[in-house]
């Protein structure tokens, strides 16, 4: 590994405004994350992984699984030669750690995201642009990708084995012994699973099925006569497979349709269809560099006819994109006719020349970002690239802040290298550094890649205070001839976090990567006791494996939860006893409902029903029995019911929430909502006892 020296460390920095809060909050078990997508809701986690400024990013919803960019650091192309004999390649970066300037400290790349279109709530669709390190074949919008660009890649490795990666905003790596239909994960996300579903008698007659930790599933297109796309990482042979279907535990399904590949053209996404009636269509344009998305539009099939052709001509809600001769996007016109502009000094020819002349030359360029109507960029990024990796070197914001970066480089083997942490300096010269942990696999052989920890191993703030973690659980396995037993790391989430004041949090996990215990130890010089929290899980059902069934806090108070084995929604939550000894309990009921879509002169019911929350019940002062009856009688019960849009042969439905009715103390207070054609709420009545049902 090539690292920065001590002198370097004194002249670099990290996102200073957040460094101290990171120090305080690490290990405090209060992570929250946003399920990115058209719903935009925030999920609070009982057991948050210890993530610094980290976005548990699995995409924009395409679902909230995998989103727009696979980050690996740039790699050599195939003509640059193979790595050491069939070495196991690096797994994709797994989580974000974002600096104050928006640069990912895991990969060295500026993380840009702009949501151009959003429609719907339940099963809604958003279209967001993001950037990353993918080579041009995997970047369908010039320097940008988008949140529906979801794919798996296959690479043959040693002994006839195969390496697979499932990629989106971040990725998960798998290894298949003998390129069989059995896969083992190479990433710390143990609950993620990859399966090969046979489609014929041949060994490779199959398609891939990925199951995420929350039970959502992605089906990938099977291999055909021509590849969906190349494997452009690691300079190896291989191919890529695009996602064809995404299924959420709730029953919402997204179907992805493509232009089929030919001998001279790869696959291009043309349409995404939600089972709740929303449709995204993409148009493409041919540029001297490649083929890129030129228009995106959305339709609501519950109220309008969706064109059979993949055209945005009749759409009222759409965006358009323009590109320069260098293959970079120059303008994005949003649905409100605001034009977001971009400029770049990047030149494919100059980059190719620098690559050919390496190590005598590297390549540098700048990217500028403009707000609509502005001629001065609000941000200019300076960038560096060589044949192995690329990163941001500095940033200038027009409102004042400037940041410069230097990076730690992990050298996996002769040609596979990537950024894994770094330092950043602000305008005042203050620095903070972020390091990741490099680990060898059990049975490691020469040329194999290291494993990189999912989150930082060390953070040093501008005051020199250190926060440290460890991700390695040592185990042994057979190695190369002459070295039959090689000890390596089974990568896990952090085993501990040690803070500058001497306090520490220790973690234990089950075989699925779920946190079982958190032991918070006091700072040095105090006599405070350790505080232990415990968690249990029920992994008999995949969709619920990551959800705690009990949480015992540091005072021994227990919270219980029961989940549906069908869709994973919480059915009952029981809190610790209050001062009177009563354990408050809330019960939840769900119902399957079907959307209705426009079909000819009428409407057609969807064949994919969706689970929706229809009621919540709790007792105000007393305990509930096993049947949910309040000990103090029916008058003690509070019931909230949820009313949804109903469809029929003459009326469409996207299952929008039309109202809530709260019944307590002998009266019902109803709140009603109305929406526009895009599923945006435009009115809400006050809960003043509205009777009947919402219109």
The tally of structural domains comes to 3
Overall geometric form: globular
Largest sheet: 37 strands, antiparallel
Q: How many individual β-strands?
A: 46
Q: Beta-strand level of the residues, as a percent range?
A: 35-45%
Helix content: under 10%
List keywords for this structure.
37-stranded antiparallel sheet; single chain; 695 residues; three-stranded antiparallel sheet; mainly beta; YD repeat-containing protein; disordered N terminus
Describe the structure.
This protein is mostly beta strands. It folds into three domains: 11-498, no CATH class; 501-563; 577-695, no CATH class. Helices cover 3% and strands 42% of the residues. The chain contains three helices and 46 strands. The strands form five sheets. It has a 37-stranded antiparallel beta sheet that branches. Strand 37 and strand 38 (570-574) form a beta hairpin. The chain is globular, with a radius of gyration of 26 Å. The model is unreliable at 1-85, 232-236 and 479-484 (pLDDT under 50).
How would you briefly describe this protein structure?
This protein is mostly beta strands and 695 residues long. It has three helices and 46 strands. 3% of the residues lie in helices and 42% in strands.
